[in-house]
């Protein structure tokens, strides 16, 4: 029985910062960011959006009324939690009107949380073939203004509906893992901005990729040329390219794999980092922009979460997949964003909901999204539907 991604949707902020503007403001040569990091634009998240609203807006695009009644599990992968106790998934269940007869919970391991949720959902459907599982991967990447990590900020959400006989991607029961207790990136409870050892984290990422790839080869007797493409978790797009180049000599068709990688990073370069969702935005980018995929094509996916957990797994493109709608939706979403000046970006960055317990109310007039964060009252976040 084939199990995997039946529907997939994406949502990000209606605002972005041009990376060239950021380079000029920080007295850097633009190509350091454009080529050295591989980023062109960066989503800037307004205070009226958080991971709950980002995920709700992504999921609302893809779910039918029938889907909402059939879903019996909601898994929310994020490292931008909004509460130390209550799951973001519970808010999603309520906002979207999903059946109350569903398990709803949140899962965390840095950027790996979305993959953990996807694999858990696949195994649930393997035992319960009539089930549908909603997996959400949403985050807001923050490193602070005028910091080394500033160029790799961003945010957004990917929503994936898992089912048997999927229309998009069939997840194979072939996967390998590697984990270790490493302090390359973390975010203490008292901080909104992450703490990261950038050079060390890059080294660990490559190391975990090569370890899981080698374990996969040994376990399943597959080689690089068995794959039509490899896609990666992309905290910034040059990172995935470095990983691919570390094994590209194993291929007899390196230019094909490199071309597929270029297709897979188109959208990430325009959005920036979204932690748990980055690998799956890369998947959306590959599906929408590659002209070399066909039904049955084998792809490899590398997921990484600092701290650290790595996983390499494989999947096949469904014979039923057609990328026309996905391509059009992504083009429309990214084309209809508003560019911010540096001052506007910095003001918006600082205006997010504070870590204190003060009541706050946000102006919603500039956010026409279906779901918004209206503010906070008596320690409760106030979510609102504008449908």
TrEMBL record:
InterPro entries: HMG_CoA_synt_C_dom (IPR013746), HMG_CoA_synth_N (IPR013528), HMG_CoA_synthase_prok (IPR011554), Thiolase-like (IPR016039). Keywords: Transferase. GO terms for molecular function: hydroxymethylglutaryl-CoA synthase activity. The active site is at 79 (proton donor/acceptor), 111 (acyl-thioester intermediate), 233 (proton donor/acceptor). (3S)-3-hydroxy-3-methylglutaryl-CoA binds at residues 143, 242, 273. Residues 3-164 form the Hydroxymethylglutaryl-coenzyme A synthase N-terminal domain. One of its GO terms (biological process) is acetyl-CoA metabolic process. Residues 175-246, 262-348 form the Hydroxymethylglutaryl-coenzyme A synthase C-terminal domain. Belongs to the thiolase-like superfamily. HMG-CoA synthase family. NCBIfam families: HMG-CoA-S_prok (TIGR01835). This is Hydroxymethylglutaryl-CoA synthase.
